[in-house]
Amino acid sequence: MDPLFFLLFAFITVACGVNVVLQKHPISSALSLVAVMASLAVLYLLLGAEFLAMAQMIVYAGAIMVLFVFVIMLLNAGTEATRGRSWTATIFGIPAILILIGALAYFMQTGMPQLGSVKFGDFRGGGAYQVGYALFTEYLLPFEVTSVLILIAIVGAIVLARKELD
Amino acid sequence: MDPAQIAGILKQGAVPTSWYLALSAVLFVIGVAGFVLRRNIITVFMCIELMLNAVNLSFIAFAHEHKQVSGHLFAFFVMVVAAAEAAVGLAIILTVFRNRSTLNIDEIDSLKN
Amino acid sequence: MFKLWLIPLLPFLGFLINGIFGRKLPKLVINAVAIGSVVASFLWVALVVGPSTDWGEHKVQAHYFTWIQSGNFNVGWDFAVDKLTMIMLMIVTGIGSLIHIYATSYMDHEGGYYRFFAYLNLFMFFMLNLVLAANYLILFVGWEGVGLCSYLLIGFYFHKKSATNAGNKAFIVNRVGDFGFALAMFLVFINFGTLNFNGVFAAAPGKPVETLTAIALLMLVGAAGKSAQIPLYVWLPDAMEGPTPVSALIHAATMVTAGVYMCSRSSVIFLHAPAAMQVVALIGLATAVFAATIGITQYDIKKVFAYSTVSQLGYMFLGVGVGAFSAGIWHLMTHAFFKALLFLGAGSVIHACHGEQDMRQMGGLRKYAPWTCLVLACGSLAIAGFPGTSGFFSKDAILTAAYAHAPWMFWVGVVTAGMTAFYVWRAFWMTFWGDYRGHGKPHESSWVMLAPLMVLAVLSLAGGFLFNVPEMLKDMFPEHGEVPEEHMLMAISVAAGLIGIALSWYMYVVNTELSGKIANALGGVYRLVNDKYRVDEAYDAAIVEPIIHGSSAVLWKTIDQGVIDGAVNGIGARAQNVGGLLRRIQSGNIRSYATWVLAGSVVVIILMGIAGGVR
Amino acid sequence: MNLLDLVILIPAIGFLAALFIPRANEQFIRLFTLGVSLLTFVASLGLATGFDKNAAGQQFVTNFVWIQNPEIHYHVGIDGLSLWMVLLATFLTPIAILISWTSIEDRVKEFFALLLLLEFGLVGVFSAWDLFLFYVFWEIVLVPMYFLIGIWGHDRRIYAAVKFFLYTMAGSVLMLAAIIFLYTQAGTFDYVTVLDQLQSGRIALSHLQETLLFLAFFLAFAIKVPLFPLHTWLPDAHVEAPTAGSVMLASVMLKMGTYGLVRFCLPMFPVAARENSGWIVTLAIIGIIYGALVAMVQPNMKKLVAYSSVSHLGFVVLGVFSFTQVGLDGAVYQMLNHGISTGALFVIVGFLYGRKHSLLIADFGGVATAAPWLSIMFMITTFASIGLPTLNNFVGEFLILQGAAIRNFTWAAFASLGVILSACYMLWMYQRVFFGRAAGEPEPADDHGHGAHNDHAPVHTHAVHGGHDSHGHGMPDLSLREWACVLPLVMMMVWMGMYSQTFLPAVSAQDARILTTIEKGPQASNVNITPVSGGSAHAR
Amino acid sequence: MPASFSPSPDDLLRFLPETILIIGGTLMMLLDPFLSAKKPKMFGHISLVAFVAALFATVAANGVPGPAFSNLLIVDGFATYFRVLVISIGIFAVFCSYHYLDREKAETSEYHALLLFSVAGQGIMVASNDLIMIFIGLEISSIASYVLAGYLRHDRRNNEAALKYFLLGSFATGFLLYGIALVYGLSGSTKLNEIQKALAAPDASLVMAGVAAALMIVGLAFKVSGAPFQMWAPDVYQGAPAPVSAFLATAPKAAAFAIFLRIFMTGFQQIAASWEPIIWVMALASMCVGNFAALTQKNVKRMLGYSSIAHAGYILVALTSRSEIGTTAAMFYLAAYALMNIGAFAVVIHIGGKGEKYVRIDDLAGLAKKQPFTAAMLTIFLLSLIGVPLTGGFFGKFYIFRAAIESNLTWLTILGLLNSAVAAYYYLRLLVVMYMHEPSEASTVLEPLTPGLRTALVLPAIGTVLLGVVPNFVLGFARNAATFGK
Description:
The structure holds 5 protein chains of 5 kinds.
Chain B: H1 3-12, E1 15-16, H2 17-37, H3 41-66, H4 70-100
Helix pairs in contact in B: 2-3, 3-4
Chain C: H1 6-21, H2 27-52, E1 60-70, E2 73-81, H3 83-106, H4 113-132, H5 136-154, H6 161-192, H7 197-203, H8 209-226, H9 235-238, H10 244-253, H11 258-265, H12 267-271, H13 274-297, H14 301-321, H15 325-352, H16 365-368, H17 370-384, H18 390-405, H19 407-432, H20 447-466, H21 469-472, H22 486-510, H23 513-522, H24 524-530, H25 535-585, H26 590-614
Antiparallel strand pairs in C: 1-2
Helix pairs in contact in C: 1-2, 1-4, 2-3, 2-4, 3-4, 3-10, 3-15, 3-20, 4-5, 5-6, 5-10, 6-8, 8-11, 8-13, 10-15, 11-15, 13-14, 13-19, 14-15, 14-18, 14-19, 15-17, 15-18, 15-20, 17-19, 17-20, 18-19, 18-20, 18-22, 19-22, 23-24
Chain D: H1 3-19, H2 26-50, E1 59-67, E2 72-78, H3 80-99, H4 108-127, H5 131-152, H6 157-186, H7 191-200, H8 207-224, H9 233-240, H10 243-268, H11 270-296, H12 301-320, H13 325-356, H14 367-370, H15 372-386, H16 392-407, H17 409-434, H18 457-464, H19 470-474, H20 480-498, H21 504-520
Antiparallel strand pairs in D: 1-2
Helix pairs in contact in D: 1-2, 1-4, 2-3, 2-4, 3-4, 3-10, 3-13, 3-20, 3-21, 4-5, 4-10, 5-6, 5-10, 6-8, 6-9, 8-10, 8-11, 9-10, 9-12, 10-12, 10-13, 10-21, 11-12, 11-17, 12-13, 12-16, 12-17, 13-15, 13-16, 13-20, 13-21, 15-17, 15-20, 16-17, 16-20
């Protein structure tokens, strides 16, 4: 079953990912991105990351993407203009992307050490308990420090988006 | 990887970790491609999220490989970072839009040469 | 011992006093200082050094201080007196004194009076240095120093462009000669390890002929510059821009003979380099003829004497070249007498005619300036080799030696002697006979001017008897072989002189039309000679102009500013171009930036992946 | 703290102190900097009197660690080579200050302070015995000169200043690379140690390495000298610089290059120096002739003098690379001579500029009438520059040419052409500037002659119509201050020309040591060129 | 390492500097309602106090060196050195900001809070021993910087700078993060010493390690603005408010170089042979791009942006030499670089005027006549940037090239030195304009130097000269720190 699940959701992920890029209207891209995240959450689950799968759905697909959609609506962003001005991006961009994926594939193919395989349920270290325990012991510092990150985000948003400086 | 191998995997019922990694790589590159090719700033920003998600998948796949929880934590931190970035980034986009009334990334090029 | 340093230093003090304070001094003091210093020096030479010097082998040496010392290159400020030097000292100080006296009157009305005497004293200092030197470098000090004074005095009337031009020309042409002299010194030091005359001459006979020939030829270049020989004679006629006493002292009697002195001084080297000797003789002879032909056609009285000087210097070189060093020196001395006389006389004539130098504007002056006429007649006789005069003896000595060396040289010399007599007497007739053709009323010069002239006139006439130079110098230079036909030769040369005088008398007194007819008949040839063979023009066209235009157009404008600076600025411009290109890449477009990041990362990833795989 | 330290420190302290003087006190600033520079000069005279010319090695040494790891020493001292260079710098600085007394009106404080900084750098360059320290001073010198040219210069000053800075910088960075490389080999910057290790073979350089190191040092020095074809910064810098700048530049700074050649290039890389001497000498000779020819056709006096420097310094390089005692002595001596005589040329050209605000030869004429003493001083300087015996340049040039002739007679022959040409351009300039009559000049002053006999009418009649007193105002003779600038220089010319024994023995002794070390060089025997010293191959 | 809920006092002490900075920033937000209307300058004072306190805390923390927080952090000489550096830069940034914010009427608590947070993030970066910690520190620093770059939100230049910085920064972070992920996958840890061990294992996959390192190089090179990842730098430095540019050009760069050094000199030392050529090329490219593109700039800020690229190139040369001397050199150079750049930007702030109207090079014209002191200070900084002896810039360059030559990077050295000669040209242009041109419009409206800016000029100037004349006091410390505790 696992491979089928994987392939299914991998297909959804990639398809939606491509859709994010291909869609002309940002709102479509955003919805595709939500789909990517959702299918990724499933893959996380397959990898035994229960907590993260939930977090992915709640934080990412929920909070962050809502913010995106909100801003898109707020700015009333329409279909993106077709006139592009970057020759560099068009001429070098696409070949570079192809070479990048090729290179990554080649090196992963040749250079990756022998890895195991994933079977649903063979790793149970990703539950809320384990994650929580690690967060408050070994990873206490980053956990606390990320709070600063959130604070900065708040301050930054205030600085940039509030109505008037006075 | 030839079809026979794939068939073997399907039969066995276990997915090689490298498939996840490959998926991650593909997703990453899609993100990169989107960044380079799209013109709407918000879409471009979403492509960055795509890249971060791709990396998260790698982290979790490797966490599974090493049977460690730390990889999950990394992914978790990345999410927090992504959230903070999203807040700040969207605020920046907002100010840009207020001043220029455009979201076309190609039109934001007054600082140059 | 003899305080040799006093000899040059006295005039030098005169120079300092007049040079620094002269502006504020009355003329009387200036005269006293200028004349006094030179006369004192003359007296010191004549009364103290001269008599005490044993006229035999004895040689006075004095070392004052080390001038330059570097490794084994050691040059001291050394003086030495031997007989040759003694003769030169007498000539220089003696004639120098006379000319100083003459000049006090001649320059009486000139501006820059003190300046003139300061320069003149400085000249004496350097000239005495030159003859007193005991090594080549000190000789060279004098050599260059007299060049400097020559430059200053030729350009004495520095408001006149022609004067300063002439000064520059003199100095620069001399520099060409000095170039040769300096190279000669380098060779001397390389081969002898010293520049001292004693050391060099002692070792010279043992050195290879090629070396000595090279040294001698290079010295000849130097001598040719200083003594106005072909091809470097061109400066001397122009040097007549200077005041006449200068022409007499520097450009006739003393400085220009320094080349002859130097060659004689180096006789040991020359004698061991026969090929060089031959060259010296040929150049001397060629110069003698060449300058004489020009002299025939000139109308400026000083130019005539100037070419005559060149010609006579050629004689001296002929003497040196054929090995008759003492004859050369003899002629040097007699020439100093009569040529100084001629120039000073010419000065007197010019003075009489209110500054006129063109002989066509003179004539009949014997009535207005009888004394001048008389003394000039003496000088002219002497230069024409009239029997019994000083010129007769010295010229004869040279011609005899030339005959012994190669008869054809004798014959050329004789022809030259005839021409010399012709043009000098031509000048004489044109000046003193006929009717006065100029403006104003000519007048006789003052006694201050005439007195030195008379002394010189006596010397010109009797100098040959009084000072038998070959006799004095006979131990210094090898004996010259006797020529059997000596009297015959003497007669021929005297005859040539007389014919010259007679011809000139006929052409310029009896049949004055004739010269014009001949000139017309000769046409182009005459004009060529009258234009001094257009050598100056040729030099200008062949050397000066190409150098100046080449330097300006090619070296400066093209190579310096075009190529080198162009390359430097070009590098700058290229750098800015590159900068401009890089700035264009920096388009401000976020997507292009991202593309660069992407492209960069692709390259880095591939390289690192490959490198990592290789280990 | 010995005397040399004082000589280095006094200008530095003076510089800093001058910065704190209120800028309104202009006269005080002038006096103060003059006082400092004179004090330095007096102190440096003590160096000359206390110097023992027979002792090997450097004297007045101060050596302590400045920076640990990499161990960089403040190691200064002087030997026969640097002694006179130091004195040259201290001698010319007061003169440079004096000539700027009235001509500098803008930003007086900065100007005079910078001159002191320049002096500090120059003295430092010539006395440093640590490679790093040397480089430090070498670069420090650039800064004040850059400002001197750029701020107080003439019309194209900025171009000239930047060109000067970049040219020098481009050369010196390679020297820095070479210095660092030597450090990695020797483990020290101390020049004595480095040299010792190089000579004893403890640092074994490959042939290629030695050549490259030599070239790196050589390039830096050659630009500074400047050697053809790296010279084009010089005319620009000279022409545009204020007089004091030109003087210091020509007289002292150019010597940094030649000094470097003698001090560093030769002893450290004897083999490379000898192998490369052929083309170097060729360039030097080209420079001699080329500089002279180009000087001849310059319409601008300063440019003329600048190109003449190219020519004269070609002689110096020739002397250095003759590898003979005579040539080397002459080269070092010629550095001093050129400093004095070219310095004086610039000083007087500066006077002329101050009077007429032009540097073009064509704008002058007849100066000799109006300002006889000025003309006489310039005449002496001119002849010194031409190389008239009894004046200083002759001694140097003769020794150089003699040395070159010992090594290769053809070199001397070609180089001697420069002596002829120098007379051409200098005299021609002198004639056009000082002789003749200035345009519109009236009858000459009473004591200056036009020949009563010879002087023909045109000049007279033409001149009568000129303005009556133009020359009296426009071209005064030397003032007392100007005398104070020129007279010491002229006296030095005569002294150095007449009695070189004051200076040469110290130089000679040091040169002899350098030459011996060169001949002892570890690989010297492998090379096919036999070293020649003096004329020892012949006579005796 | 046994996991525990309560960190030890030593752990807390080792993290004290950042704690102080964060508390200071938070405190500022709390005090905002009381101060912002009446005494906005107080915010500056408070942040100064916080920075100074953090500086002392750094010194205190250095007294108890060692790892903290389950080895995520490490306090060693290296960390202390860079902490002191970034905190000092913070102090100077505050001094630079007083006048600027006053002029722009934009004195807020948020500005100073963000500055404090940003420095805190850099402090975390430099003291981290773990890639994930590094990442978090980097993001704290970066996100705060993004906001600061766009601080004057009504200014179009600020907006654009912020957007570019943000988008491209995030893009590059993606690469960095991907690299971290791969490293984690290969070694099973993100701790640098573990990575080093894992890579030393005989069966380690060096191909993937290379790819991972490559991705991290991309991310880090972006942060240090090494070519070809430098494109953002000129735009951002030009667009951001001048004091922020001063800060951005120095502190994040120093911190980024610190982690660059730490990661590549410890974690990736095993595969040094493969990254050295890459950095070699990158160093050269940075020097060339920076210097050549700066040649024709007209805007001072932009020119300084390009110059910072070139200087990054020099520091990359030090990295290329991958020796302790090289690390020392990079550390020293960063200090010198920070001082001279802050100083140069301070002058730009001074002459800029309201709305940064006068930031063209020509606006410096005649500065030496109007304000000789300011001109003299800028002269010191420019001479240091050129690399004239007796300045920190020179000694730093010298030390870098010394390291390079000792590592046989002769050609890189020569090219680098030639580059520094090219660089002299555009720095000289500033000197030319300042000293040799007649005063322009900008100088007529020039205000006198305020005490804050004066401090921001004098202290760096003194520092620059001290680094050049007596480099030992910094050099000695850097040399000990460069061993990474080995």
